[in-house]
Design goal:
Layout (H helix, E strand, L loop, with lengths): L2 H24 L4 H24 L2 E6 L4 E6 L2
Antiparallel strand pairs: 1-2
Helix pairs in contact: 1-2
């Protein structure tokens, strides 16, 4: 899997995690399902972040544009 694909996976998992966190905050849906979704997508997000870091990249949030950016680290 190339770096761009991993970055896209990171973005998708982050978005899914935010959806479940918003549901938990608003107390919408089944609490067990929400907790399972948060656990699953949180773990997937960490796994992808570790793979990106091991490849020498880091994901940061640009505060001005509020977009995720992939930065090469040494």
């Amino acid at each position: 899997m190339c770096i761009r694909d991993r970055f896209n996976t990171y973005r998708i998992e982050r978005q899914r995690l935010q959806v479940y966190r918003n549901k938990a905050e608003k107390q919408e849906g089944n609490p067990e399902t929400i907790a399972a979704g948060i656990a699953k997508h949180g773990a997937n997000l960490q796994q992808v972040a570790k793979k990106l870091q091991s490849a020498g990249y880091e994901v940061t949030l640009n505060k001005e544009s509020r977009k995720l950016e992939l930065i090469k680290i040494n």
